[in-house]
């Protein structure tokens, strides 16, 4: 048995004139040096990815967040998070915080700049109130020896969802001392998901199979997936379906003789044997990840060629509330 149904069908949706998740796209680039003079510029290598969102979603609002607008939003709506933001030694920590804040406040989709949109996202917003996307299961097994890991590079939620409220509340209690690298990224996001749904360590490996959903085979708590406070986990065929490129060689080695492996590795190798490593998007795939490693602090982004966001997106929304 693998980790989810093998499907080739449209994403679950309903006919509605009012989406459950508002049609807002949020992206951001917070510079390592907090320089506000070039706040609305991004490394040019992201241009191709960024252009795909208005191409397929021309009627969605596009919000771009910078150090300046992020701090202004915190000052006005979440002053309790300013200390964390100001003391966070790395831009990736500020960015991790702000993606939770902006989706909590406005609702919509957050996507890292190296995310490519392949088709309209309209139907994704019709049935569920919050959607978080699991990594390919090979990544969860290799990174954490668990059946799933939930990255924070792409997610969709309605505004004021209690899951995001919990995340912000927990971050507000974190104290950064000196240059400590407090991580509030994928591992933190996965733990917050488990906390929100009361998923114990034992439940983490619990198999839950239902013929009524194409969602993966792991226990997700007791809330019905269409409840206004629930979190839906989609099949990876719709989003983020290709394993991390760092795992190509290791996956091949681990699955060379899976009969001597643990149960979870055997399950992983079943998927690998059927699907291989390189997976082309299907006609039903919405997004794919470019793996540009924008979080890597060893990359000197200031030396890269930059482009104005306003040249990439024609109608950019920025936060100016006073």
UniProtKB/TrEMBL annotation:
PANTHER family: INOSITOL PHOSPHOCERAMIDE MANNOSYLTRANSFERASE 1, MANNOSYL PHOSPHORYLINOSITOL CERAMIDE SYNTHASE. GO terms for biological process: mannosyl-inositol phosphorylceramide biosynthetic process. One of its GO terms (cellular component) is membrane. This is Glycosyltransferase. Keywords: Transferase. GO terms for molecular function: mannosyltransferase activity. It comes from Dreissena polymorpha (Zebra mussel).
């Amino acid at each position: 048995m693998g980790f989810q149904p093998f499907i080739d069908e449209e994403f679950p949706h309903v006919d509605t004139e009012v989406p459950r998740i508002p049609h807002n796209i949020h992206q951001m680039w917070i510079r390592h040096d907090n320089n506000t003079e070039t706040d609305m510029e991004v490394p040019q290598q992201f241009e191709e990815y960024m252009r795909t969102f208005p191409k397929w979603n021309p009627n969605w609002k596009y919000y771009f967040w910078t150090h300046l607008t992020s701090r202004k939003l915190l000052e006005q709506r979440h002053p309790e998070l300013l200390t964390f933001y100001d003391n966070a030694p790395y831009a990736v920590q500020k960015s991790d915080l702000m993606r939770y804040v902006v989706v909590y406040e406005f609702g919509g989709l957050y996507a890292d700049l190296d995310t490519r949109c392949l088709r309209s996202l309209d139907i994704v917003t019709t049935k569920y109130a919050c959607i978080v996307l699991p990594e390919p299961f090979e990544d969860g097994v290799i990174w954490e020896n668990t059946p799933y890991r939930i990255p924070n590079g792409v997610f969709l939620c309605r505004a004021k969802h209690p899951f995001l409220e919990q995340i912000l509340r927990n971050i507000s209690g974190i104290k950064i001392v000196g240059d400590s690298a407090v991580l509030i990224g994928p591992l933190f996001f996965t733990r917050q998901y488990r906390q929100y749904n009361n998923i114990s360590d034992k439940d983490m490996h619990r198999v839950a199979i239902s013929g009524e959903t194409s969602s993966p085979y792991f226990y997700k708590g007791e809330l019905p997936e269409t409840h206004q406070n629930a979190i839906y986990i989609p099949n990876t065929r719709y989003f983020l379906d290709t394993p991390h490129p760092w795992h190509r060689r290791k996956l091949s080695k681990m699955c060379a003789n899976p009969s001597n492996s643990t149960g979870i590795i055997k399950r992983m190798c079943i998927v690998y044997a059927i699907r291989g490593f390189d997976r082309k998007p299907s006609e039903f795939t919405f997004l794919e990840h470019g793996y540009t490693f924008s979080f890597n602090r060893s990359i000197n982004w200031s030396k890269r060629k930059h482009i104005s966001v306003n040249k990439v997106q024609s109608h950019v929304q920025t936060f100016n509330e006073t």
